[in-house]
Write a structure and sequence with these properties.
Oligomer: single chain
Structural class: mainly alpha
Helix content: 55-70%
Largest sheet: none
Number of strands: 0
Shape: globular
Distance between the termini: 24 Å
């Protein structure tokens, strides 16, 4: 596959991933959304279906890495780093495009949510249990959770380890069950397996940090959150931002090492 195919495929695939994954977070979070308060099951299955759709769409072009942790793992597995920068660039750009499209699709809901006094505070506002958890976290605005992840308990070591563990599970599943015949991307059956693994990780390991398990999935939308003209949006929590980037990259590298020792 050519560099242009890789870049275009990863851009399109990651944009779809974030559009549908961030979209379910918006649907569950925002006022005037028909799916508001649908809960964690909706989020985990929404992200799983987002993975499925994105992989099937982009696999013919790029192999559908859609995740720098997967790209690093395959580079370690095959000892081939030549296309890694192209994959990274497409993934980050796609994630930013997808996050911007979520904002477009839910523009009215963002405006209603972020101008509601009970959400953002202000004269006459009352404390309410409906406030987003993110609004109560240091440095995080009330809709940041639609764009990127954040911990329920801020403990850098635990948060980092949670992301590492979740990514090891994901990448090991990709390397052992998900690859196509060339071994350089996800296959048809691998897309379904990977989507179900993402649902499983969300249900079982997503509680502490929101399971980024993908640096581009977190960093790209976080940048978009910082740039968008959202009223009363609050901070983008840059103090935490390194964890969902570094943790998955470490997890992907460890998974590749395990694969090379135990399975190759």
């Amino acid at each position: 596959m050519s560099s242009s195919d890789i870049f275009i495929g990863e851009t399109i695939g990651t944009a779809i991933l974030i559009l549908l994954g961030g979209g379910v977070c918006a649907a569950v979070t925002l006022k005037a959304s028909k799916a508001r308060n649908a809960g964690w099951l909706a989020i985990t299955f929404g992200w799983g279906f987002a993975v499925l759709t994105a992989v099937y769409t982009s696999a013919p072009l790029s192999g559908a890495h859609l995740n720098p942790a997967v790209t690093v793992a395959l580079a370690i597995k095959d000892n081939d780093w030549s296309n890694v920068p192209t994959y990274f660039a497409g993934q980050l750009l796609g994630a930013m495009i997808g996050a911007a499209l979520v904002w477009v699709a839910y523009y009215g809901q963002f405006q209603a949510h972020l101008t509601d006094k009970e959400i953002v505070g202000g004269p006459g506002a009352q404390a309410t249990a409906a406030k987003a958890v993110e609004a109560q976290e240091k440095g995080a605005g009330p809709v940041l959770g639609i764009f990127s992840t954040g911990p329920e308990i801020r403990n850098a070591v635990q948060n980092l380890l949670t992301e590492i563990i979740g990514t090891i599970v994901l990448v090991l599943a990709v390397l052992t069950q998900g690859l196509n015949d060339s071994g350089k991307g996800l296959g048809t059956l691998g897309a379904l397996i990977t989507a179900l693994v993402v649902v499983s990780i969300g249900l079982s390991l997503g509680g502490p940090t929101g399971y980024a398990i993908n640096p581009a999935r977190d960093l790209g939308p976080r940048i978009v959150h910082a740039l968008l003209p959202l009223p009363n949006k609050g901070g983008s929590d840059w103090g935490y931002a390194w964890i969902p980037v570094v943790g998955p990259l470490i997890g992907g590298a460890i998974a590749a090492g395990i694969y090379n020792v135990a399975f190759a």
